[in-house]
Design brief:
By secondary structure, the protein is of the alpha/beta class. It is about 45% helix and about 20% strand.
């Protein structure tokens, strides 16, 4: 499939380029000593990703430990309520630990073992990446430090408990807004001190090269499975594919399976309380080009050009930038990026729970909300949603803030 001057037949092999760029986005903007560590990771990844031993081990883990492939479910009752468009969900909520994050965490931890590292370091927002990495660390016998903002620790208490039970050291971050950006800042600082013995396992398709590429590659299993499953179920491709986007790991994993198909692709960002700066985290919709956390992408900026304060009801989406590949696909027009508000998201959370018996993560509820809007606009066809996680982690917060509707 040709889109602009991009041949999507070979896209995943050609992007990023050797310097880690997707067009003008990506790269690696970090101190020299950390760049040497990243070069070591890049070399190790390119070595083992071609190794049949590594690939076989990862496939075994996915099947025997993670419970892959996760199924695709048809949302019959919700589809009937909305009209003639048929809704389906890729059930990453049924992946071990309850979200898509384990897909790349097991790969990153396996890479750490290959490199002889003794510890994994990471940030987390909603806690799903932290739980997944703590799980992978326990599986491989690695030490694990998880940095998490104080606000998110309070919102995501169940996941904090899970990380600690799994043996991880959860480190509270009290700087700034005390959410995901500050957690990333703290994790980067820790890695700069410990890079000889540790590996920083970035939780999304963000950060310096090679992480946007590596995380996408590990997460592409979602889109590859979903495409095959959907065709088997229906005999054709979906008309539209929808996923939520913060940093964008679940979305890039899903989109990777469909970029070369005649399918409309939608990335859904958090509009939060509204379009005013500080009330949302919709960087691709309202941001501009800029560098943060070691990569160039589209980001939300304050009056000084620094990362702006952001907000979302979903702890996993309140990040002031997005992955460089998303910025590239946004500019190219291959993926359409749009927004839904907190109110629309919470409505979708309860609607899916009541209509289908599936309690989604608040992050995933953004995608469900947008798919419901899209279904009302379309006269016919099908929509495949990436249900990136389950809502267990959000129950206490939802009940406290919104009650039981």
């Amino acid at each position: 499939m040709q889109y602009g001057n991009i041949d999507f037949d070979t896209y995943l092999k050609n992007y990023p380029d050797g310097e880690g760029y997707f067009g003008k986005y990506g790269g690696s903007f970090i101190p020299k000593e950390l760049q040497e560590a990243m070069d070591e990771i890049t070399q190790a990844y390119f070595t083992i990703c071609k190794s049949s031993k590594f690939v076989s081990e990862l496939r075994r883990i996915r099947k025997e430990f993670q419970g892959r492939p996760t199924p695709v479910s048809y949302l019959e009752r919700l589809s009937g309520k909305l009209g003639n468009v048929q809704l389906y969900v890729k059930r990453e909520d049924l992946n071990h630990t309850g979200a898509h994050k384990l897909n790349h965490c097991m790969g990153e931890a396996l890479l750490a073992k290959y490199m002889g590292k003794k510890k994994v370091i990471a940030e987390t927002g909603a806690g799903q990446h932290g739980v997944a990495l703590a799980t992978a660390a326990a599986y491989f016998g690695l030490a694990c430090d998880i940095y998490m903002g104080a606000v998110d620790i309070k919102k995501q208490a169940p996941n904090v408990a899970r990380m600690k039970i799994l043996g991880a050291n959860v480190i509270e971050v009290t700087d700034g807004l005390q959410t995901l950006k500050e957690a990333v800042d703290a994790a980067f600082m820790a890695y700069s001190r410990e890079y000889k013995d540790a590996i920083y396992c970035i939780g999304s398709v963000v950060g310096p090269h090679p992480f946007p590429m590596m995380v996408r590659d590990f997460q592409s299993v979602v889109g590859i499975e979903a495409r095959e499953q959907f065709i088997e179920m229906t005999g054709e491709l979906p008309d539209a594919v929808v996923a939520c986007v913060g940093g964008g790991s679940n979305a890039m994993g899903m989109f990777a399976g469909f970029l070369n198909d005649p399918v409309e692709i939608y990335g859904v960002e958090p509009l939060g309380r509204g379009p005013a700066l500080g009330d949302h985290a919709a960087s691709l919709s309202y941001g501009s080009e800029g560098v943060m956390h070691g990569f160039n992408s589209i980001m939300l900026k304050d009056e000084n050009g620094d990362p702006a304060p952001v907000y979302s009801v979903a702890s996993g989406l309140d990040y002031p930038s997005s992955g460089p590949e998303h910025a590239f696909l946004h500019d190219l027009g291959r993926v359409k990026y749009d927004v839904v508000s907190d109110d629309e998201t919470i409505d979708a959370f309860f609607e899916l729970s009541r209509m289908e018996g599936i309690i989604p993560a608040i992050e995933s509820s953004h995608a469900v909300a947008y798919a419901m809007k899209l279904a009302r606009q379309m006269e016919k066809g099908s929509i495949l949603i990436n249900l990136s996680g389950r809502g267990d982690k959000d129950m206490d917060y939802i009940i406290e803030k919104y009650g039981i509707r």
